[in-house]
Recover the amino acids of this structure.
């Protein structure tokens, strides 16, 4: 089965740039998606097709995908960005999620 | 503004069947892939399966023997049945939807399902 690997946690200071990686075999040949999940809430799609933002998602969220790694970048990180982040792709008609990364802003 | 509303039993005994339904309000039902995803307490997201408005399904291979998804296009609803549940099936279950290659843009509010004797 296909696996996506994320770091369990990432820390960043307010106003700095946070990067969260997602690794999978030839992930760059597939589309990568990113979701933000705040405690007690449903996930929210923040990046689709590697680097596109749905309407309403701030421009400080960006994505890239190449080789075996997709990266979510949050520039000028705010305390409200503290959440869990999940990457996702498709593999043989199945949705695959990464294990999630807890972003701490302190 | 399209929104999803889900419902179903929240407490089951081992060996019973989990049954959830999700309704789509305020937008189109066709042209979307409708999924169920679950999240055990304190853990990550796990995709269970998807169905489109024509009733074509894809299921996670490890759950395939226990999962059935169905649609009722007249009511703009889709449903999940998971048989022979155990404590390992305890999780918050989400319904979600998205258009092809556009990601899961729509999410329900989540339903906590607890399996306990």
């Amino acid at each position: 089965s296909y696996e996506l690997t994320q770091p369990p946690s990432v820390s960043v200071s307010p106003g700095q740039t946070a990067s969260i990686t997602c690794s999978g075999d030839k992930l760059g040949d597939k589309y990568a998606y990113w979701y933000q999940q705040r405690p007690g809430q449903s996930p929210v799609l923040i990046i689709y097709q590697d680097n596109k933002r749905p309407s309403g998602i701030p421009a400080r969220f960006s994505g890239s995908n190449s080789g075996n790694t997709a990266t979510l970048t949050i520039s000028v990180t705010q305390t409200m960005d503290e959440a869990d982040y999940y990457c996702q792709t498709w593999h043989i008609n199945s949705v695959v999620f990464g294990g999630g990364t807890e972003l701490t802003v302190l | 503004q399209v929104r999803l509303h889900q419902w179903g039993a929240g407490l089951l005994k081992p060996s019973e069947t989990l049954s959830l339904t999700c309704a789509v309000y305020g937008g189109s039902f066709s042209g979307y892939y409708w999924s169920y995803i679950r999240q055990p307490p304190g853990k990550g997201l796990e995709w269970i399966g998807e169905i489109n408005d024509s009733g074509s399904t894809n299921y996670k291979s490890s759950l395939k023997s226990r999962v059935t998804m169905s649609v009722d296009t007249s009511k703009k609803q889709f449903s999940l049945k998971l048989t022979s549940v155990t404590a390992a099936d305890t999780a918050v279950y989400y319904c979600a939807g998205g258009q092809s290659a556009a990601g899961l843009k729509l999410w329900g509010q989540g339903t906590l399902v607890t399996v306990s004797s």
